[in-house]
């Protein structure tokens, strides 16, 4: 068994992931997540996220370029 499979496989991490979620979220939170991730809204979010990231990156780059003189002074 390789190092990666031994220490980083889903099977080896699963109990720890469950503990993290159990510590941070209530059962109601988890049920809400399941509902959201099964919804059309989540599918829409996944489809539009790359475009959102591109537009946000362009906005930040434009703001940096417009204000470069203030940034470097």
Verbal overview:
It is a single chain. The protein is mainly α and 73 residues long. The protein has a domain at 26-73. Helix content is 88%, strand content 0%. The protein contains five helices and no strands. The protein has helices at residues 3-8, 10-24, 27-37, 40-66, 68-72. The radius of gyration is 20 Å and the shape is extended. The mean pLDDT is 94.
Primary descriptors:
mainly alpha; extended
Give the proportion of residues in helices. Answer: over 70%
Separation of the first and last Cα atoms: 55 Å
Count of β-strands = 0
Helix/strand-derived category reads mainly alpha
Order of helices and strands: HHHHH
* C-alpha geometry: extended
Profile the largest sheet: none
Question: What's the structural blueprint in terms of helices and strands?
Answer:
Blueprint: H1 3-8, H2 10-24, H3 27-37, H4 40-66, H5 68-72
Task: Summarize the structure in short.
This protein has 73 residues and is mainly α. It is 88% helix and 0% strand.
């Amino acid at each position: 068994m390789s190092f990666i499979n031994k220490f980083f496989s889903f099977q080896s991490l699963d109990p720890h992931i469950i503990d993290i979620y159990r510590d941070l979220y209530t059962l109601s939170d988890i049920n809400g997540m399941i509902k959201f991730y099964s919804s059309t809204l989540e599918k829409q979010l996944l489809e539009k996220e790359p475009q959102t990231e591109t537009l946000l990156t362009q906005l930040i780059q434009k703001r940096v370029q417009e204000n470069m003189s203030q940034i470097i002074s």
